[in-house]
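Hi,

I'm pasting everything inline rather than attaching a file, because the server keeps stripping attachments. The sequence lines come first, and each chain or strand is labelled.
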Amino acid sequence: MGKMIIDGMPVEFTDEQNILSVIRKAGIDLPTLCYHSELSIYGACRLCNVEDDRGRMFASCSERPRDGMKIKTSTPRLVRYRRMLIELMLASHHRDCTTCVKSGDCELQKLAHRLGVSSVRWGYKERTHEKDRSSPSIVRDPDKCILCGDCVRVCEGIQGVNAIDFAHRGTDAMVIPAFNKEIAKTDCVNCGQCRVVCPTGAITINTNIRPVWEALADPNVKVFAQVAPAVRVAVGQAFGGAKGENVMGKIVAALHRLGFDDVYDTTFGADMTILEESKEFLEIFEKGGPFPLFTSCCPAWVSFCEKRWPEFRNNISTSYSPLQMLASVAREYYADPKNSEGKKILSVGIMPCTAKKAEILREDLKRDGKQNVDYILTTEELITMIKRAGIRFDLIEGEAADMPFGIGSGGAVIFGNSGGVMEAALRTLCEGPERSAIEELRNSGVRGPGPLREFTFNYKGHEIKAAVVSGLAEADALLRRVKNGESFYHFVEVMACRRGCIMGGGQPAHAGYRTKEARKHGLYESDVNTQIKKSNENPTALALYDTLIRGREHELLHSHR
Amino acid sequence: MLEQSFYTKADEIMNKYPAQERSLIPIIHEVQETYNYVPLELLPYIAKHIGITETKAYSVASFYERFSFEPKGKYIIRVCDGTACHVRQSLPVLERLRSELGLSDKKHTTDDMLFTVETVSCLGACSLAPALMVNDHVHPAMTPDKATSLIKDLREEAAKS
Amino acid sequence: MSEKITSIDELNTLREKYHEAVKKEDVRILVCAGTGCQASGSLKVWEKMSELAKDTNITVEFATHVKHPHVHKSGCLGFCEQGPLVRIEPLGVLYTKVHPEDCEEIFDVTVKRGEIVNRLLYKNKITGEECYNQDEIPFYKGQTRVVLKTCGTIDPESIDEAISAGEYQALAKALFTMTPDEVIKTVLDSKLRGRGGGGFIAGKKWQQVAGQPEKIRYVVCNGDEGDPGAFMDCSIMEGDPHRMIEGMIIAAYAVGAQEGYIYVRAEYPLAVKRLTLAIQQATERGLLGDNILGSGFSFKLNINRGAGAFVCGEGSALTASIEGKRGMPRVKPPRTVEQGLFAKPTVLNNVETYANVPQIILDGAEWYRSIGTENSPGTKTFALTGAVRNTGLVEVPFGITPRKIIFDIGGGIRDDRKFKAVQIGGPSGGCLTEAQLDEPLDFDSVKKLGVIVGSGGLVVMDENTCMVEVARFFMEFTHRESCGKCVPCREGTLRMLEILERIVAGNGRMEDIDELRSLADLIINTALCGLGKSAPLPVVSTLNSFMDEYIEHIQNKKCPAHVCQKLKQYTIDPEKCRSCSKCARGCPVQAIDGKPKVPYVIDQAKCIKCGACMSACPFKAINVA
Ligand SMILES: Cc1cc2nc3c(=O)[nH]c(=O)nc-3n(C[C@H](O)[C@H](O)[C@H](O)COP(=O)(O)O)c2cc1C
Ligand code: SF4
Ligand code: SF4
Ligand code: SF4
Ligand code: SF4
Ligand code: SF4
Ligand code: SF4
Ligand code: SF4
Ligand code: SF4
Ligand code: FES
Ligand code: FES
Ligand code: FES
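And the predicted assembly:
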């Protein structure tokens, strides 16, 4: 607690860990390229430098606020230094902005513009490294790296993976996988969190826009898409809409305009996942183990578990992820020429997730050697396509998703939030149609802040010990505790991305605290507005068990890991 | 894949240290002293043993100038280019060594794997500048001509053994 | 073999015992075995001496008393340039440049007869006088040896000698007669300041660590000594490791630390070896480990070797390196005293800082403050190198003038050339000019001159030194050693270096001066750690004092000191040329043309200044300017 004077204005501070946060609270957008509130402080870009009343200069991201401090944030000297720092970064940067995928959304470019860097005195850097396109999820372009270390800290600190790190030193320093091998040959789990924090074009999404667009134009191909829950609360903002607003209707309309023949809602698949997974859980629960059962819908988590904790791989539910559920069932549906009109079918997932691009390639998810999903487009790619096609997203009218896979329950919508899968699964275990049990569950601890939430659920007089965890480093710690016998759970939901898919690797980046909260509330709000609350009340999903998938649940809805 | 003997040797070295991150640098030191370089393949092996990722091990090893992933010569000649040596003309010594051995600032090791020539900043023998070090042995007050005869001596010594 | 010492009485008894034993040595032959003298071949001298001393039952008429000449290896005496050095006690005679061939004569003349081998004495380089012992040598005259008191007089590989010389007495005093707070207070009162460069009050650090709520604490010794051209810490670690270790144990007692680490640069193999041995011996003797001297206090000591990264001398980079990480400095807070090694409160001091502690404990704060200046008490060791007559390790009280060091101790400039500047503070320092030579040398005074005391490198430069090239040299060093974390240092030093390279190659422009200054200003003010913050200082300092040389390089494409290769002009003296054509044949770019009987000529436009012709000419007809 205390008060500081920032640029002559008194500003109160409470528990802010650094002066930068206080400055931002005061409404001053101090430029930074290496600070993320959720990552450890690194102090490399030096842009956040400020001056105190004695002319002492220091980086505000790494200094604690003290009562009575007097800070100036943009003296002529500071402005000059910031400009030079950007100039120095650009001098060692392969700056081909006009054709760079990141252009227009690049922090470095924005700052260069904002700070008025109008010339670079020291040389031009040619391309010296090949791009690494080995991963289905992300593309690495080391020539655009400014060594801010954000990706390293997210990959190691938040995800516990450490697939990339600094190598060498000084001007030779680079952020690369061990031995500079291809990222696909590392323990990378494709979560894409590195690209979310990367301020430049050094790590970007490996895009699949082109083949999808070509298929859309092909009259002999019927293209269908499914839209994941988290996508609908992240698109609007890009077109001037409110943060976190659910714009599913407009997305459906935009996809139709882009030429998608059918647009489905992944919440349908989510309901199927819940139906299968809760069945699986009850079986294990009644059998008395093995515990815990882990959720399976996050491919980055599955990959992490397989690579780092193989002893737990068989504890992961075999139920398909919502994406695969819907795609698998749709494949059966289109097998009927009535539905396919005799055309080739192309299955596209619109996902908040870069790891899904890897998931669709998994051998254990193929049927007869064929992928259930052909391409994944992330939310970012969807936004790009809408912009590229010139669709006035702000003006179009919403449309309903297509049937038969256009309806999902409220429980399915909240899948996009960390805890959502668990909540939806336990909802189906709430007795009867009464809403009070659902209400009670919601307040049991399954929702809330923090990367780890532990709570219990009463099922027919038995206690189910459950945990919800997001961020793989946190999951790693949990697994270690489980292994050492320090913790025990019956059922654990793991999401690789902190806060769940709303903050997935394919979502629009630059999401601050308010955006994150808005996305979360957007999904919970949609649940409130949905009549069907529980997956086992989704009529179209239930109907399938008597038709398309009858007796083929194992074949069509479960991975054969 | 390296021969088994490398892994056996690595085990031997690793067993001297606790299986912790802090043992990484001492272990790499010993590996390098054993082989004159750090065989790349050993790094993931060491990393696994001490419980860190191979990415981390590579990140750390590549930071330090002294660790080399490329095999070095039998004689590692470190020419001091610290201040004291520099002002007393250490560069001509370095140049002579390089021209004598056909090396450059890009190529440090002779093809016959006999010599590696590197620079180092100070060997602690500054009063005897310019100095150089052959393996662990310091040679004081060097001149280009002394460098030439040093190479000759070392060649003879190598031929004998 | 050696039994544990379990009480202060036992320590004293032992000390007496060794003292007596040493006294009984009729003749003590000390062969310097520091890095410098070893490089000059002192180990062979030692072997030869030992061999000669073996058949000792010499009963020579003149010296019947000599029954057992004892040959020891000693630590660096600081005068390495004159090595190998051999000192003979109790005569106190010091022989310089001793070779194995001289040993027999020394043995016969000095050891047996107590007479002097004159030709091996040091001769005053100016007056030509022979100096009989250390004290007569001008090099030693101006020195005050506190830290280096026993360095060079005892065998650093024997803890018994150290004990007999009084080492570990301060530890005993601290453990048994002082509380930890009293130790801290004494060190605080002594105003001992860190010798690693920053000059931070050591006692304050200790106090801060002692006051932390966390009880696991570490004591770390910074023996990374990365400054090129500095070897003070090297000599201490090699020559008197126990003094420094004793200082560390006292620090550990004062702050309540359980474990300590010594971080030594890997380029000092001898220091590593001697420290390892010293720790082993001290542990065997019960001076390290559990229940030290029966006091109940326990302390363990480890050694970590650096791996070739100058930046690891920076505190947070050093601790990261010990932890097995990349040696990259981190932002502060938290500071090392709060969260240092393994995120625990840590005392980090330099080798020389620790080596000062025992004497302060023994003789008190007041005594210590009587040496040096008011705010920089005590002495400082310097590595005096470069263009002076006597190079070596010197220890002088703070407040001495650079002139005294260079001209009295150092004997002035070699070959009677003109003094130009003295570089102080290594790559983080700057140059003092003739006009500044009479300013007192202490932490605060030199700061006012725009340089720092630094760790203690003093590189003397004469008129044959190009200051622009010196600036480039340091810039190259810091650029190479930058960890690459923060933008101003990583990118800024690269650009400064490019500009300096351009200037020394004759491609400089006048705007370069402004660019250098503005980059320097940026880096100094915004870099994360001390390496970056001080990297431009050699440039700033030379710009301030030697602007004319920069201008000469830029505008007239001339290097006044004739150092910069690219600015050299090779010409053939027509008087001396005999048209042998050797030069022309050796020129890689065919810049030399000539006919028989006519002097050859170099085409300046073609010449790439490689110098090949000059070495090829058998008649020394080619000049360079
Ligand atoms: C780049 C850099 C290199 C340093 N190198 C050394 C060194 O080699 N030895 C040393 O004792 N201190 C060195 N220091 C200073 C240390 O950071 C630290 O201040 C010192 O070890 C503290 O000990 P002292 O208070 O006893 O001087 C260096 C600092 C920087 C920024
Ligand atoms: S990363 Fe940013 S600054 Fe660099 S080329 Fe791309 S858009 Fe331009
Ligand atoms: S911003 Fe400038 S460089 Fe880029 S496209 Fe427009 S005019 Fe060209
Ligand atoms: S995608 Fe995830 S796991 Fe892979 S490098 Fe990026 S952050 Fe690390
Ligand atoms: S890849 Fe991106 S996030 Fe990672 S260090 Fe480079 S610029 Fe920063
Ligand atoms: S949490 Fe969601 S967005 Fe993130 S990797 Fe897992 S499935 Fe993808
Ligand atoms: S100033 Fe240089 S050495 Fe220090 S942290 Fe920055 S880049 Fe690294
Ligand atoms: S210095 Fe070299 S290039 Fe110039 S003339 Fe002589 S040999 Fe030829
Ligand atoms: S080598 Fe010397 S003497 Fe012969 S031609 Fe050249 S300059 Fe003349
Ligand atoms: S944000 Fe503070 S240094 Fe980068
Ligand atoms: S500068 Fe070369 S040995 Fe010190
Ligand atoms: S090493 Fe012998 S005097 Fe320095």
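The helical segments of chain B are 4-14, 24-35, 42-50, 54-63, 83-87, 90-101, 144-160.

If the labels don't parse on your end, tell me and I'll reformat.
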